[in-house]
Protein 1
Amino acid sequence: MKILFTLLISIVTLFGFEKLDSSNFDEKIKNKNVIVDFYAVWCPPCKILNQNLKDFDELKTQQDVTIFKVDVDEQMALARKYKITKLPSVVFIKNGKVKDLQFGVLSADELETLSQKHFK
């Protein structure tokens, strides 16, 4: 029972940000500064990145940056469209245009530096 509870908590934690799918992706990122986290529930580094994204979201200096998540197992077409080949992957999008694609776990400080670079 304890293992099931722990697993449930870790899955719920992954969904702290709004999830996107192919039906709402383009509309949600339109005319915004967006960081999209492509992840999978079974991916341990994705859980670390999720916590770093939460830390970044609380401390970010640019308040006009929105964070979204895309589950690659549920949204394979979006993963292919954005050339996601490794997890976790973070895509920086400004006004609907990809500015950068980063693979791996980024710290909150790295996320801040990259967002300042791409969302001037």
Protein 2
Amino acid sequence: MSESLSSNDVLRDFLEPGAYGGNPAFWDEAMASLPVGVLPMLDPAAIPARRAAAGLPADRDGLLRAVAATVASDPALSRFAWYLHWRTFVAPEHGVPWGAPTLASRLGAQAGAFYELLALEFAPRLAAWHRHLGYPREVTEQTIQQISAFEGNHLRGRGCAGIYERQFPWLAMYLIQPYVRLGRFEFQLHPYGGGVSVWKRAADGQVLALAEDGTRVAEDGLRLAGGAPATAGWTARLVETSAAVVGFPVDPAGRILRTQVSLDRAAWTPVFQKGSTVLDLHIPAGGGMGWDAMTDSFRQALAFFPRYHADQPFAAVVVNTWFLDPRLAEVLPADANPLRLQRAVYLFPGPPQPGSLWFVFLADTATVDPADLPRDTSLRRRLAEFLESGRKWNAGSMFLLPEDMQHLREGCYRDRFLPLREEFGLG
């Protein structure tokens, strides 16, 4: 293998010099540990066992062996394979390496199989990490299913086996934090990234979310995108003193209200805010959103994390995702399961994410002409029409408190909010 290939040489060789912003972080550190000879993960004899451990079908072996042979014979691909392996599985604490090249010009239709080949390392690394944490084997087996979920996206989007280059790096996250699949959902224990602060009144258990200070708000109560004109919308303020917290409330239906409220600090206490420990919810592809499956998953999380991470009590389950945009009610019928979940949790506007519908279309809706989006399902058709009308999809966020996880109920927060509307004159 050539010793002179720098990261820039490799990216230019792939005809993608702009990948990783042109500067793959920690490249030199990874190359310092580059093995001599053929990389271990390219051993064709080991592929069947590694593929089986990752939960992939046996008919993938031929494709994976072919890609392994191609990489082993190509110095640029070999170096890049080692870089990804090192960043994702050997040194995941350095952070997820976003911005990977597509490799389309180098590998064509087999580009996704390159990333799938590297992803086979996920199973043994995750098993070792879970043994360290003392998790049951069945939790590890469930979490490994993310490989199949990622492949399912690639099969639907590109029509062949593989993993998208944008999804592969996420595997590092499972190896540095408590992050597991429990039934239908995945849960990641980590600090809350912010968006609202949440308060509870001890006297009656009322819960109220307030928009964070400086939040830019559109006239419809959703959040404005960064870079929006200074004259657009309005800005929410949040002021805390020892006597009161003054801010703008969020309706549990997912919009910030333009009526300021003052909460007496003697009566209201904080539940969580930016930096608090939460469970970030992730929804693996496939499996639907059946009510019983969702409820069961929340109950499993409610039992699992206090048992295995009693030193890190979580304040809430939170998530920001495409199907929590409150305007989804314009797209789906009222009895659709995603809308049922919306009505069971406390919605709040998340930061605008023009590309969040990638998970629906498996295409970058921030750059693709809506007229070119697939319309082979009613959901895709309706969302494509929404975008084609010139409107922007914002995605949305939610939280669910631990005391409400055991018995998921539609209207849980919206019903409780009605008295607060009258109390604070919210209309």
Protein 3
Amino acid sequence: MRNLFWFLALFAMAAAVALFAGNNQGTVTLFWPPYRVDLSLNLVLLLLLAAFLLFYAALRGMSLLLALPGEARRWRIRHQERVLQQGLLDALSHLTAGRYIRARKAAENVVSQTASLSRAEQALPQSTRLMALLHLLAAECAHALQDRAGRDEHVRQALALTQGKRRDEQEVREGVQLRVARWAFDDRDVQAALQRLDELPQGVARRTLALRLRLKVTRLAGQSRLALETARLLGKHRAFSESASRSIVRGLVTEWLRTSHDPAQLHKAWTQLDESERRMPEVALQAGERMLALGGDFALVQQWLLPVWEQLVRPGSVLPQELRLRLVLVLERGFHQTPGQPDGVWLARIEAAQMGNPREALLQYLAGVACMHLSLWGKAQQLLRQSLTQLADETLRRRAWAALARLAEQREDGAAALEAWRQAARG
């Protein structure tokens, strides 16, 4: 449709020109004494149009002639850009292929070419950032080659080039700082890695990459508390899957509790845990075992272990057998360390659980141990003997036989005690 309108307009213009020029009797007279020149108006218009076109062509030719030096300069810059781009691609390809010497040489060549362009006042707009990235690439190669002096020199030059306040320069500087911290971690220099991470701006330090690195560094340094705080942040940022995050947090919490040196420190660490962390069976069991090892309050341990106990006695419980065994051993150890235990509340819990699930050997064993510590000799002997027929764990079987031997000695039955001790030794 647009082309049709153009053709109609062209035809209209041609018709107008034909009507004007075909019957135009106009004359232009030029007086040049003593001469007189008469020219047709159509001819004058054609001459004026030809003069305009000639003048315009002369101006365009002059403009193109004057622009030749600029075009030549732009061509040289484009050529240099292509050369630098090719050098950068060579360096990256050699780096990814593991040819660190070639990659480093290519990066240093591009740096020298960029510097020479800057000295010749032909610097590219992105030359500063390009040189900083190339120094970082060369430093990466030097780190792979264990050339720490060369690596540090390239890092120094990269940081010197990115001291400005431009956003792109700041991003390159942050990348250099992160890589330096990573290299310190690779060298197992924990203090240097932590120092580099602490030097990061607040926004950069909370990025997922920085938090992952901080988690590795703090775990290497044995700083379980700082590692736990970092793992919590990573969990909030969804850096790990839910199961992986739970596993990492659980491991860090148990490691932190394991490093407590006295009951007060352990109790303080427990209070600093989140509610979801305290309800993890592995965490509660580790805290209870550590508290008993430090000679702490067994009543406090029972309070910590109550959620684990509720999981154990819950119908259809999916608590692993290993954790069930650990729970029973922790409670038994607490009964041994604290005379007069368990109290009435826990005895009622144990009896109710054993009666609700009479086929559970672990509950029979625990109930027998509890009755034994409450001087209920007959009931303790009955429950322990019942548990022996179903106990699969050799450690518990030996402990059950040892308990029966002590009960036999209590009632002065030497033959039964000797047989029980023999069975305990046999395992």
